[in-house]
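To the wet lab folks,

You asked to see what we're planning to order before we commit. Fair enough. Below is the target structure as tokens, and below that is the sequence we designed to fit it. If anything looks off to you, flag it before the synthesis order goes out.
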């Protein structure tokens, strides 16, 4: 699938873009590795921002060129699926369009991702009028790529049965379009209504946009168990998805662990 790009001169003259991730102290090793991979492979000098959750001293040894914003949280960060406790750091990405209005675009990268190639094609992608871009959640079983599967109680929302779901680990936001579309208010309402999602913030964002997002090729968000199918040589961003139990800095035996180890 080809990635449409804006003209480079146009982007440089008009767009102000940043890369954003988020973590608490448990995911700090992931942020360090992600930062190193961006610097080595991303071919970009856009601002890198961390939405940090914890004490200032927890993040004292991060590189000085990471802009840190502390403890910006949604009013509630509901648990769901295997996440039995609220995790504010996971939900912080939904605040990007509200708190980073000085930017035109923001690329969210989960702290358990590693950038393997030039990010320019993604940062410059033509969003075709959409508020955001993301890949679908499932590669092996495409039947899982609907909001119906993301919901814990899908029978309550039959109108969402066939809407496509998104994978929220790599998301490009058009901040002005998101805000103009009233999606912050939509997110707030879903949180207020306590809609239950199997994959927490991922389902929340998918339901908020209602299937209306630019679909990214899987090369921009490849799970470890998809590597053989996608082809390592084709992968731009590798995502070490392990749920709440596994991470490459704590589990040590994840698929393609050796790749993450190069950047820690």
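Sequence we intend to order:
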């Amino acid at each position: 699938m080809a990635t449409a790009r804006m003209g480079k001169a146009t982007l440089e003259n008009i767009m102000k873009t940043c890369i954003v991730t988020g973590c608490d102290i448990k995911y700090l090793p992931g942020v360090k590795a992600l930062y190193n991979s961006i610097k080595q492979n991303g071919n970009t000098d856009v601002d890198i921002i961390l939405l940090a959750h914890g004490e200032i001293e927890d993040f004292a040894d991060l590189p000085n060129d990471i802009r840190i914003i502390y403890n910006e949280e949604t009013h509630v960060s509901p648990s769901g699926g295997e996440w039995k406790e609220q995790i504010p750091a996971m939900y912080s990405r939904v605040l990007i369009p509200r708190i980073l209005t000085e930017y035109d675009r923001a690329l969210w990268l989960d702290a358990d991702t590693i950038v393997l190639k030039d990010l320019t094609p993604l940062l410059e992608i033509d969003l075709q009028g959409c508020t955001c871009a993301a890949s679908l959640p499932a590669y092996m079983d495409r039947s899982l790529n609907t909001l119906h599967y993301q919901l814990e109680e899908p029978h309550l929302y039959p109108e969402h049965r066939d809407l496509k779901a998104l994978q929220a680990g790599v998301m490009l936001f058009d901040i002005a379009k998101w805000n103009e579309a009233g999606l912050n208010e939509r997110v707030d309402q879903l949180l207020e209504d306590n809609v239950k999602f199997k994959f927490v913030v991922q389902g929340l964002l998918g339901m908020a946009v209602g299937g209306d997002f630019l679909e990214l090729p899987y090369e921009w968000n490849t799970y470890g168990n998809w590597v053989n199918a996608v082809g390592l040589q084709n992968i731009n961003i590798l995502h070490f998805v392990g749920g709440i139990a596994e991470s490459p800095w704590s589990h040590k035996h994840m698929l393609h662990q050796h790749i993450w180890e190069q950047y820690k």
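Structural context that might help your review: The CA atoms of residues 17 and 105 lie 5 Å apart. The longest helix spans residues 28-41.

Thanks,
Computational group
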